[in-house]
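Example 3.2
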Amino acid sequence: MSSSRLIGVGVGPGDPELVTVKGVNALRAADVVVVPVMAASDGKDGGERGRAEATVLHYVPEDKVVRVVFALNERSDRARREAAWDAAGARVAELLRTHGTVAFATIGDPNVYSTFTYLAQTIEELVPGTVVETVPGITAMQDLAARSGAVLTEGTEPLTLVPVTAGAAVLKDALAGPGTVVAYKFGRLAEEVVAALRETGRLDDAVWGSALGLPDESISPASDLDGTPLPYLSTLIAPAQRHGKRGGKL
Protein backbone atom coordinates (compact mmCIF):
# COMPACT_ATOMS: atom_id res chain seq x y z
CA MET A 1 0.00 0.00 0.00
CA SER A 2 1.18 3.50 -0.83
CA SER A 3 1.74 6.26 1.71
CA SER A 4 1.85 8.96 -0.98
CA ARG A 5 -0.45 11.96 -1.24
CA LEU A 6 -2.00 13.39 -4.38
CA ILE A 7 -3.35 16.90 -3.88
CA GLY A 8 -5.51 18.64 -6.46
CA VAL A 9 -4.86 22.37 -6.08
CA GLY A 10 -7.21 24.88 -7.63
CA VAL A 11 -5.17 27.82 -8.91
CA GLY A 12 -8.04 30.01 -10.06
CA PRO A 13 -8.90 31.27 -13.55
CA GLY A 14 -5.50 32.71 -14.43
CA ASP A 15 -4.72 35.71 -12.23
CA PRO A 16 -1.83 34.61 -9.97
CA GLU A 17 -3.15 36.86 -7.20
CA LEU A 18 -6.28 34.71 -6.96
CA VAL A 19 -4.48 31.58 -5.74
CA THR A 20 -5.39 31.07 -2.08
CA VAL A 21 -2.77 31.06 0.67
CA LYS A 22 -3.60 27.40 1.30
CA GLY A 23 -3.10 26.67 -2.39
CA VAL A 24 0.30 28.36 -2.47
CA ASN A 25 1.37 26.49 0.66
CA ALA A 26 0.30 23.16 -0.86
CA LEU A 27 2.21 23.85 -4.08
CA ARG A 28 5.37 24.81 -2.19
CA ALA A 29 5.16 21.87 0.23
CA ALA A 30 4.74 19.25 -2.52
CA ASP A 31 7.77 17.34 -3.80
CA VAL A 32 6.68 17.89 -7.39
CA VAL A 33 3.88 19.89 -9.03
CA VAL A 34 2.19 18.35 -12.05
CA VAL A 35 0.60 20.66 -14.60
CA PRO A 36 -1.64 19.46 -17.44
CA VAL A 37 -0.59 20.35 -20.97
CA MET A 38 -2.42 20.08 -24.27
CA ALA A 39 -1.49 17.23 -26.58
CA ALA A 40 -0.26 17.97 -30.10
CA SER A 41 -1.65 16.04 -33.09
CA ASP A 42 0.87 13.26 -32.44
CA GLY A 43 -0.31 12.92 -28.84
CA LYS A 44 2.89 14.39 -27.40
CA ASP A 45 3.55 17.60 -25.49
CA GLY A 46 2.70 20.45 -27.83
CA GLY A 47 5.01 22.81 -25.94
CA GLU A 48 2.35 25.41 -25.19
CA ARG A 49 2.34 26.73 -21.62
CA GLY A 50 -1.14 26.43 -20.19
CA ARG A 51 -2.87 28.68 -17.70
CA ALA A 52 -2.27 26.37 -14.74
CA GLU A 53 1.47 26.15 -15.43
CA ALA A 54 1.84 29.90 -15.91
CA THR A 55 0.10 30.50 -12.59
CA VAL A 56 2.12 27.87 -10.72
CA LEU A 57 5.43 29.35 -11.89
CA HIS A 58 4.68 32.50 -9.91
CA TYR A 59 5.08 30.42 -6.73
CA VAL A 60 7.39 27.46 -7.34
CA PRO A 61 10.65 27.06 -9.32
CA GLU A 62 10.46 25.61 -12.81
CA ASP A 63 12.57 22.57 -11.90
CA LYS A 64 9.84 21.45 -9.51
CA VAL A 65 7.15 21.45 -12.22
CA VAL A 66 6.41 18.34 -14.30
CA ARG A 67 4.40 18.73 -17.49
CA VAL A 68 2.04 15.83 -18.20
CA VAL A 69 0.04 15.53 -21.41
CA PHE A 70 -3.73 15.23 -21.01
CA ALA A 71 -6.49 14.98 -23.61
CA LEU A 72 -7.96 18.23 -22.37
CA ASN A 73 -10.31 18.86 -25.29
CA GLU A 74 -10.66 15.39 -26.83
CA ARG A 75 -14.37 14.58 -27.10
CA SER A 76 -14.90 12.88 -30.45
CA ASP A 77 -12.44 9.97 -30.13
CA ARG A 78 -13.17 8.06 -26.92
CA ALA A 79 -10.38 5.52 -27.47
CA ARG A 80 -7.80 8.27 -27.90
CA ARG A 81 -9.11 10.08 -24.83
CA GLU A 82 -8.99 6.94 -22.67
CA ALA A 83 -5.47 6.14 -23.88
CA ALA A 84 -4.33 9.68 -23.02
CA TRP A 85 -5.87 9.43 -19.54
CA ASP A 86 -4.17 6.08 -18.97
CA ALA A 87 -0.79 7.45 -20.07
CA ALA A 88 -1.16 10.54 -17.87
CA GLY A 89 -2.22 8.41 -14.92
CA ALA A 90 0.76 6.10 -15.40
CA ARG A 91 3.13 9.08 -15.41
CA VAL A 92 1.66 10.52 -12.21
CA ALA A 93 1.65 7.06 -10.60
CA GLU A 94 5.37 6.83 -11.36
CA LEU A 95 5.92 10.16 -9.63
CA LEU A 96 3.90 9.05 -6.60
CA ARG A 97 6.02 5.93 -6.21
CA THR A 98 9.18 8.03 -5.92
CA HIS A 99 7.87 11.13 -4.13
CA GLY A 100 5.89 11.57 -0.94
CA THR A 101 3.54 14.29 -2.13
CA VAL A 102 2.50 15.23 -5.66
CA ALA A 103 0.39 18.32 -6.26
CA PHE A 104 -1.71 18.62 -9.40
CA ALA A 105 -2.48 22.20 -10.40
CA THR A 106 -5.79 22.80 -12.12
CA ILE A 107 -7.37 26.04 -13.25
CA GLY A 108 -10.47 27.00 -11.31
CA ASP A 109 -11.44 24.43 -8.69
CA PRO A 110 -10.42 20.75 -8.68
CA ASN A 111 -14.00 19.66 -8.00
CA VAL A 112 -15.65 21.71 -10.77
CA TYR A 113 -15.27 20.26 -14.27
CA SER A 114 -11.62 19.46 -13.64
CA THR A 115 -9.25 16.95 -15.20
CA PHE A 116 -8.19 16.15 -11.64
CA THR A 117 -11.35 14.08 -11.12
CA TYR A 118 -10.33 11.57 -13.80
CA LEU A 119 -6.73 11.54 -12.66
CA ALA A 120 -7.72 10.77 -9.07
CA GLN A 121 -9.91 7.88 -10.20
CA THR A 122 -7.03 6.44 -12.21
CA ILE A 123 -4.52 6.82 -9.38
CA GLU A 124 -6.81 5.04 -6.91
CA GLU A 125 -6.53 1.99 -9.18
CA LEU A 126 -2.83 2.27 -10.06
CA VAL A 127 -1.46 3.23 -6.63
CA PRO A 128 -3.83 1.84 -3.97
CA GLY A 129 -3.65 3.60 -0.65
CA THR A 130 -2.73 6.98 -2.08
CA VAL A 131 -4.33 9.73 -0.03
CA VAL A 132 -6.25 12.04 -2.36
CA GLU A 133 -7.01 15.59 -1.21
CA THR A 134 -8.17 18.81 -2.81
CA VAL A 135 -7.58 22.49 -2.14
CA PRO A 136 -10.44 24.64 -3.45
CA GLY A 137 -9.80 27.37 -5.96
CA ILE A 138 -11.60 30.51 -7.10
CA THR A 139 -13.75 29.81 -10.14
CA ALA A 140 -14.12 31.76 -13.38
CA MET A 141 -17.73 32.63 -12.56
CA GLN A 142 -16.65 34.24 -9.28
CA ASP A 143 -13.88 36.20 -10.98
CA LEU A 144 -16.13 37.34 -13.82
CA ALA A 145 -18.81 38.41 -11.34
CA ALA A 146 -16.25 40.48 -9.42
CA ARG A 147 -14.76 42.09 -12.52
CA SER A 148 -18.09 42.84 -14.23
CA GLY A 149 -20.24 43.75 -11.23
CA ALA A 150 -22.71 40.94 -11.97
CA VAL A 151 -24.38 39.54 -8.84
CA LEU A 152 -24.53 35.74 -8.97
CA THR A 153 -27.33 35.12 -6.47
CA GLU A 154 -29.68 36.95 -4.17
CA GLY A 155 -32.05 35.66 -1.52
CA THR A 156 -33.65 32.37 -2.59
CA GLU A 157 -32.47 32.44 -6.21
CA PRO A 158 -30.98 29.22 -7.60
CA LEU A 159 -27.71 29.17 -9.53
CA THR A 160 -27.32 26.90 -12.54
CA LEU A 161 -23.91 26.08 -14.04
CA VAL A 162 -23.95 24.66 -17.57
CA PRO A 163 -21.01 23.44 -19.68
CA VAL A 164 -21.95 24.42 -23.23
CA THR A 165 -19.92 21.47 -24.46
CA ALA A 166 -23.19 19.64 -23.65
CA GLY A 167 -24.88 21.69 -26.38
CA ALA A 168 -26.66 25.01 -26.65
CA ALA A 169 -30.05 23.33 -26.12
CA VAL A 170 -29.06 22.49 -22.53
CA LEU A 171 -28.20 26.14 -21.95
CA LYS A 172 -31.51 27.29 -23.44
CA ASP A 173 -33.42 25.01 -21.07
CA ALA A 174 -31.54 26.48 -18.11
CA LEU A 175 -32.17 30.04 -19.29
CA ALA A 176 -35.90 29.34 -19.46
CA GLY A 177 -35.86 28.59 -15.73
CA PRO A 178 -35.43 30.86 -12.71
CA GLY A 179 -32.26 32.24 -11.20
CA THR A 180 -28.84 33.03 -12.57
CA VAL A 181 -27.33 30.85 -15.28
CA VAL A 182 -23.59 30.52 -15.80
CA ALA A 183 -22.22 28.97 -18.98
CA TYR A 184 -18.70 27.57 -19.22
CA LYS A 185 -16.71 26.79 -22.35
CA PHE A 186 -19.20 28.42 -24.69
CA GLY A 187 -16.75 30.13 -27.06
CA ARG A 188 -17.13 27.82 -30.03
CA LEU A 189 -20.93 28.03 -29.88
CA ALA A 190 -21.15 31.79 -29.36
CA GLU A 191 -23.74 32.26 -32.11
CA GLU A 192 -26.08 29.62 -30.66
CA VAL A 193 -25.59 31.04 -27.16
CA VAL A 194 -26.60 34.54 -28.26
CA ALA A 195 -29.69 33.10 -29.95
CA ALA A 196 -30.64 31.24 -26.75
CA LEU A 197 -30.22 34.41 -24.67
CA ARG A 198 -32.34 36.41 -27.08
CA GLU A 199 -35.11 33.80 -27.30
CA THR A 200 -35.38 33.55 -23.51
CA GLY A 201 -35.26 37.31 -22.91
CA ARG A 202 -31.97 37.07 -20.99
CA LEU A 203 -29.65 38.91 -23.39
CA ASP A 204 -29.68 42.46 -22.05
CA ASP A 205 -28.30 41.72 -18.56
CA ALA A 206 -25.86 38.96 -19.53
CA VAL A 207 -22.09 39.44 -19.55
CA TRP A 208 -19.24 37.30 -20.85
CA GLY A 209 -15.50 37.18 -20.26
CA SER A 210 -12.35 35.33 -21.21
CA ALA A 211 -8.68 35.31 -20.15
CA LEU A 212 -9.71 36.87 -16.85
CA GLY A 213 -6.84 38.60 -15.08
CA LEU A 214 -4.50 38.08 -18.03
CA PRO A 215 -3.10 40.64 -20.52
CA ASP A 216 -5.62 39.64 -23.22
CA GLU A 217 -8.63 39.78 -20.89
CA SER A 218 -12.00 40.49 -22.49
CA ILE A 219 -15.17 41.41 -20.58
CA SER A 220 -18.23 42.68 -22.44
CA PRO A 221 -22.03 42.71 -22.42
CA ALA A 222 -23.40 39.64 -24.17
CA SER A 223 -25.47 41.98 -26.33
CA ASP A 224 -22.21 43.00 -28.05
CA LEU A 225 -21.60 39.46 -29.31
CA ASP A 226 -21.99 39.12 -33.07
CA GLY A 227 -21.72 35.33 -33.32
CA THR A 228 -17.99 35.28 -33.99
CA PRO A 229 -16.36 32.28 -32.24
CA LEU A 230 -14.66 33.20 -28.98
CA PRO A 231 -11.87 31.59 -26.93
CA TYR A 232 -12.85 28.08 -25.80
CA LEU A 233 -12.64 28.97 -22.09
CA SER A 234 -15.11 31.83 -22.27
CA THR A 235 -17.57 32.28 -19.39
CA LEU A 236 -21.06 33.74 -19.50
CA ILE A 237 -23.23 35.04 -16.65
CA ALA A 238 -26.95 35.60 -17.26
CA PRO A 239 -28.17 37.11 -13.96
CA ALA A 240 -31.59 36.32 -12.57
CA GLN A 241 -34.27 38.74 -13.63
CA ARG A 242 -34.71 41.03 -10.65
CA HIS A 243 -37.51 43.53 -10.19
CA GLY A 244 -38.68 45.44 -7.17
CA LYS A 245 -37.01 46.69 -4.04
CA ARG A 246 -33.82 45.67 -2.26
CA GLY A 247 -34.12 42.22 -0.76
CA GLY A 248 -37.13 41.36 -2.91
CA LYS A 249 -35.90 37.77 -3.37
CA LEU A 250 -35.63 37.03 0.37
